[in-house]
Design brief:
2 copies of one chain form a homodimer. Chain A contains 9 helices and 9 strands. The first copy, chain A, is an alpha+beta fold and 212 residues long. The longest helix of chain A is centred in the middle third of the chain and has 15 residues. Chain B binds a DNA duplex (20 and 20 nucleotides) through helix 3 and helix 4.
Chain lengths: 212, 212
Amino acid sequence: MRSYGQFCAVAKALDVIGDRWTLLIVRELLLAGPSRYTDLRSGLPGIATNLLADRLRQLEAAGLLAREEAPPPVASTLFSLTPRGEQLRGVLDALGAWGVEYMAEGPAPGDAFRGRWLAWPVERFLRDSQPDGQPVSLELQTGEAPLLVEAGGGEITARPGPGTEPDVVLSGEPYPILGLLSGRIGLAEARRRGVRLQGDAAVLARLAPAAA
Amino acid sequence: MRSYGQFCAVAKALDVIGDRWTLLIVRELLLAGPSRYTDLRSGLPGIATNLLADRLRQLEAAGLLAREEAPPPVASTLFSLTPRGEQLRGVLDALGAWGVEYMAEGPAPGDAFRGRWLAWPVERFLRDSQPDGQPVSLELQTGEAPLLVEAGGGEITARPGPGTEPDVVLSGEPYPILGLLSGRIGLAEARRRGVRLQGDAAVLARLAPAAA
DNA sequence: CCGCATCCGGGGCGATACTG
DNA sequence: CAGTATCGCCCCGGATGCGG
């Protein structure tokens, strides 16, 4: 991108990661770890393939991304963040915390969705209401890939992949599931909106809205 | 800007503030407070005037910015951030903290500079090495408007405006001044690069590089 | 199938000029 | 002082092609 030409920390940062799609590519790599080109594409619905290739080159040139050739029989290229790229987590956290407010409005018509995108709302909007209780786990099935949420010791973490014997499994549309988790709607209302629940519903009480 | 069309907190945030120049306008309003159109322009060297007008309209429509008509005899329009706009401080902090690394490389040829842009490097890169000592103040004269830096109680703050009887005044080019404050170069080297110092040089010892 | 390159239309952006 | 008007250009989006 064209430089702002300003000797300022914020402007210098935007010189590097201010291009369209760039931070969303970093988001995918932070959420999913080392990824193939095709997987990045599926995690970035709407991106043009030439733009993705361009951005990957720019990120590599800037030292934020490394490209490793996986050995046969995998025979695939893996893109991963360098330590410098990982340091963008703080920026993405701040952006996600600020943008999560717009999630409460629900998805716009035609909005795409991937299960792992719930990671920020879950970690940012919720807290563990019983820090001294036994750790509990939830599996969220909102798309292709499930998200595993764990609450314990006052902390809430979210990461991709199915859980081994989660205490409760929620499946359905992301918006009502997010509403249920955040307490904006109750279980009955969530069910009416197509959310299905398997397991121990009492586990949901462990998740409480975090103080703003 | 065109929406990313993704039901994701980060993407929704970028839908609102991802446009070119937008975050730099927020930077100016955070650093300088309510500002006139002309002052914003001078704080954003390189921006086209139609773009500034466009962005101000977008920010107003998004509820991040308010426009107040100052009464006569001032007879001027003031642009200020709404509370929602102020909440972007966390995003700018994260961006500045990440981008400050590029400041160590020095300004690119032709880079513009404004004194208040040093606020982030100073607050992020430095700490008060003697929290129990008397508060001290420094005035940095690097451009048109001076920056006032205060160290006391372990905290370092930076804000625009000249100080009343600062303990030390530094004037010169921003890069060597930044190097002097961060300890990358010594006082002798800084003087050789044109930095002039008035007052008590011992005060500089209060500022130490913050742990990375 | 994976990881792109190429082509082309539209719009955001940049610079300058101008105005109430 | 606070913008509007205009005009190129280049970035972006969408489609298609293509070698490994």
